[in-house]
Amino acid sequence: MKFNIGVKGIVRKDDEILILKRSDSDMHKPGVWETPGGSMDEEVFPQEELQREIKEETNLDVIVKEPFNVFTFMRDDTKEFKIGITFLCDYVSGELELSPEHEEYKWIQPEEFGNYKSIKSLYDEIEKYGKKYGKK
Questions:
Q1: Within 10-81, where are the H helices?
Q2: pLDDT tens-digit readout, 56-113
Q3: Domain boundaries, the chain
Q4: pTM for the full model?
Q5: 99 exposure class (CB count in 10 Å sphere: 0-12, 13-18, 19+)
Q6: Which residues lie closer than 8 Å to 12 by C-beta, 6 or more apart?
Q7: What is the pLDDT of residues 31-65, one digit of tens each?
Q8: Cα–Cα distance between 127 and 104 in angstroms, integer?
Q9: Considering only the top CATH level, what class is 4-133?
Q10: What's the rounded Cα separation, in Å, for the pair 115 and 106?
Q11: Taking a C-beta distance cutoff of 8 angstroms, is the pair 26, 98 a contact?
């Protein structure tokens, strides 16, 4: 079975995390809120690819830290099966500018994520993150 690898980042700034709303014209999950990231297209370390994806999607510089979660999914449009790795990322610098892939962004508390349209696995992931790293 052929599969690809995706990388995602929970970008942290102060006590908040960054979420992005996919463009309504996107072929995969239009209008859904997500964390930044993308597919691994080159033979590089996942951390390098994630850092590049975050810069491309948001114009932010981050430090990619340790892996936080591993997940699987199938793209709606291509039926491509992917294995994903979510890393914790710390904001370093940059003024947020969205690429055409996304139409909105928010810095939120992890417990607020349930108020945004997303997918079950990401709700679970961010809830797990909030329990481990959220406000005490």
A1: 46-58
A2: 999 999 999 999 999 987 777 777 788 999 999 999 999 999 999 999 999 999 999 9
A3: 4-133
A4: 0.92
A5: middle
A6: 88, 89, 90, 91, 133
A7: 999 999 998 877 889 999 999 999 999 999 999 99
A8: 21
A9: alpha beta
A10: 12
A11: no
